[in-house]
Structure formats: structure tokens, C-alpha cells
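Continued from yesterday's entry.
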Amino acid sequence: MQNMKSKEQILKIRATVLYILNAFPLGIDYIKLFKILYYAQQQHLVCYGRTIISDTFQARQKGPVCGFVRKGLKLIENSRELEDDFQLFGENIQISWGKDCQIINSAEKSDLDELSTSEIKCLDTYIDKFRNMDSKAVSDYSHKDTAWKTAFNRAQTDPQLRVMTILEIAESGGANPNTLSYIKENLELDQALN
């Protein structure tokens, strides 16, 4: 079950997704979008000890996938009426069929006030890295990630265990012990406040 998101969290997720879509004027497929989100999030955790977006990553067949973003995009794709959290997220995002897969795009510009300089830097790193790779190569690249491998293997016995924890993601990206300790403290504080 997906936790309800605050308006601020949704606006941040939306701005991040639109930022990536703006970098691909002809559209982007699910695989590249999710991997850019995942690796930018991982790099931001490793370098700054904080996430970019408040979304849960899951280990799926073709690599890490963001739960909230995936659900919102699937609702748009299937022309379902968007309600609550997803109405705010999905406005002006379109999905159409490309040659072999769904293509996501939007003419709307990202609200850059939602993104920090460090977040943009991490997003740009993986936009540039994956821009000219085909989606299968991007998916194969993500299968080397130890957080994905661990969660994917766990999910073979129980699909509810496919969630990749923030600490697993940071550790897989090479976060040092001090950064991992900082992340853990912040996670415990967030839990205590909720």
C-alpha cells in the first residue's frame, strides 16, 4: 500500500520528473526515467546524506522502480481518472506508444524552485549517462546494483519484500560509514516525528 504524500512531497516528485522529461523533448520510456531517478537519488544520498524525492524504490524485473511515480504513470497510461495525490502529480504529463514501448513526455517546464543545485547536479549526471544508452543496456546496468539484487532476491519468496531501503541504496552506492550513520539518524528522526 502506498503511503499518502504531502502536497510538498508531490510537488517535489513532480518537479523532479518534469526536470527529466524536459531533458528529453521527444519523450523518455519508463526504464530510463526510473533509472535516472534511482541513480540520482543514490548519488545524492552518498554525497549529501539526503534523498531527492520521497518515494519508495522497488526491485522489479527490469531494475529499480519508484512506487508512487510508477502508479501515477500507469493511471495516466490507462486513462484512469486521477484523484487525490495523483491528480497533482499527473497534470500535463502524457504517455503514448512509441515504436516498442510507452513514451512519457510533457511540454510543461519543471518548477526549478523545488530542486536544489545538488539535486540538479545528480539528475544531470544520470541524464547525461543514460541519454544515449538503449533501455535494455540501462536496465542491465541497474542489475549490477547490490541494493537491487538484494531486494530482488528477497522478493522471490515474498513480493512485499521488493522494497529497497534507503540505507541499502546508499550503501550500494558506496556511502561511507559516517554518511550511513547520518542517514540512519535522519530516518529514525523522521519516523519519530511521523
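--- second protein ---
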Amino acid sequence: MEKQTIYIQTEYIKLDSLLKFAGLCATGGEAKEQISQGLVQVNGQICLARGKKCYSGDVVELNGERLEISLCS
């Protein structure tokens, strides 16, 4: 599984924005579709909420890609 660290400058990033920011989805609409189909996991659990707040330390998975969120220092 491919692992990528995503650095954020804010306290959290919304799940749909994260997928777009990381390049796993080309558009917000595509991110919404992936989430609503139950294809996205946050910390090992399927997440259906596109507005889910993802914080530093969270792990998001989609299509064999693994994103680890970290705060910029």
C-alpha cells in the first residue's frame, strides 16, 4: 500500500478537501462520490461523511493509497 504524508497548516482538514488536496480525487464531486460509495476509510473505519474533520495523526485510505495527516511545524 502506497503511503503519503499530507502536511496541513490548520487544526483539521475536511475529508473531501483532503482527497482533492492529496490528488486522490480530481474534483470535490469525485471525492463526494467516493465517500458516499463507502470507499474511504478513516482510521480503519469506513466513513460516509464528506465533511468529516481529519486531524493530525489520522490515517485515510482510498484505492490502496494511504494518507497520514501531520501538522506543519
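Strands lie at 2-8, 12-14, 41-42, 45-46, 53-55, 59-62, 65-71. The two ends are 26 Å apart (CA to CA). Will compare against the first tomorrow.
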